[in-house]
Amino acid sequence: MTDKEIEILRILQEDIPVTARPFRQVAQQTGLSEKDVLDIVKKWQQTGMMRRMGAILRHRQAGFRANGMSVWAVPENRIEQIGAVMISFPQVGHCYQRPSLPNWPYNMFAMIHAQSKEEAIRVVESISKATGIKEYDILFTVHEFKKVSMKYFVDEIPADLYQETSDNGKK
Amino acid sequence: MHLSAETQAQQNEGSRQLNESDRKLLNIVQKDFPVCENPYRVIGEKIGLSEAEVLERLRHLKEQGIVRRIGGVFDSKKLGYKSCLIAVRVRPEKLREVAAFINRFPGVTHNYQRTHPFNLWFTLTSGSDEKFDEIIDLIRSRPGVEQLELLPAIRMFQTEVTFKL
């Protein structure tokens, strides 16, 4: 990535003001032409570097109030087939295979986005029926401490935190 | 500032009803944002609104907190970053403190208390293995953290989704 591209990425990963010509505004901040910016964004979309351009919603505010992380103990040889079944449910968002642990038997994760807790439970029951997987759980959100978009090319450890931890070390 | 906007958005929740044209607008602006000089005019043409109306509706939806932001979502892997889900078991009386500490890292994008003995779940995205390990060590050594487990994705069946309204 060129320095100019990193500059554009840093702007586009933030919130772009809603104005008639948003990409011209980005261009003006970087000293590139509007066409350059459009070409770079299109290139990123083609290569998959940019997964999506557009609005990111707060799904709670948009009516999806019961979001549950469903977790499943799936036999290794059925992972592929069951993953395909899970994502065929429209309420399923992220769906990943992850490692299981000694006190954590679940190796498949499927986020359920529903309007209510009851609906989320109905969805996992349907998934259980469709897949035959009986060992599962659904973890609901008690509190959202943080939900933000990733910011790339920034300091990963805040400077004041280094200060504090070294102070603690002295005590 | 972020928090207060969030809180206000939650307070407004009850009064909010999306009309049909907002729904259409949100669906299109999430998935098919035109990369061109006048994206909002193009969107308006598709759903029968003027450019000015699209701009006004979108500004309103942002104020209401339904739209978190308008911008790009990048593929962390392709940018050389690695991402991991982390499950933590925290002594309940230390939960808020540990959560606040975890929140301070910019690479932590999600951090939730959940209904399980693993009561805190967060994601960490990092551009270097050294920084990743350093951050994990800092969190693991916080008072109240009883168990911390890395649960990286082995296989992704479906990544980020947009919401059909």
Describe the protein.
The complex is a heterodimer of chains A (171) and B (165). Chain A is α+β, with helices and mostly antiparallel strands. Chain A has six helices and five strands. Chain A has two domains: 3-47, Arc Repressor Mutant, subunit A; 66-140, Alpha-Beta Plaits (2-Layer Sandwich). Chain A is 40% helix and 23% strand. In chain A, helix 2 packs across helix 3 (34-47). Chain A is elongated. The termini of chain A are far apart. Chain B has 165 residues and is an alpha+beta fold. Chain B has two domains: 2-63; 82-151, Alpha-Beta Plaits (2-Layer Sandwich). Chain B is 39% helix and 25% strand. Chain B is built from six helices and six strands. Chain B has helices at 2-11, 20-31, 39-47, 51-63, 95-103, 129-140, and strands spanning 67-74, 82-90, 108-114, 120-126, 145-151, 155-158. Chain B has a four-stranded antiparallel β-sheet with strand order 3-4-2-5, with helices on one face. The two termini of chain B are 28 Å apart. The chains are: A alpha+beta (171), B alpha+beta (165). Chains A and B meet through helix 2, helix 3, strand 1, helix 4 and strand 3 of A and helix 1, helix 2, helix 3, helix 4 and strand 1 of B. Strand 5 of chain A pairs antiparallel with strand 3 (108-114) of chain B.
**H/I helix tally of chain B:** 6
Oligomer: heterodimer
Number of strands of chain B: 6
CATH class of the largest domain in chain B, named Alpha Beta
Q: Largest sheet of chain B, described in full? A: 4 strands, antiparallel
Largest sheet of chain A: 4 strands, antiparallel
- Which structural class should the secondary elements of chain B be placed in? alpha+beta
- Mean pLDDT of chain B, as a whole number? 89
Q: Helix-strand pattern of chain A, N to C? A: HHHEEHEEHEH
Strand order of the largest sheet of chain B: 3-4-2-5
- CATH third-level topology of the largest domain in chain A: Alpha-Beta Plaits
Ends distance of chain A: 44 Å
How much is the average pLDDT of chain A? 92
Task: Give the N-terminus to C-terminus distance of chain B in angstroms.
Answer: 28 Å
Name the helicity range of chain B: 25-40%
Contiguous low-pLDDT stretches of chain A (5 residues minimum) are: none
CATH structural class of the largest domain in chain A: Alpha Beta
Proportion of strand residues of chain B: 25-35%
Order of helices and strands of chain B: HHHHEEHEEHEE
Number of domains of chain B: 2
* Uncertain residue ranges of chain B: 1-15
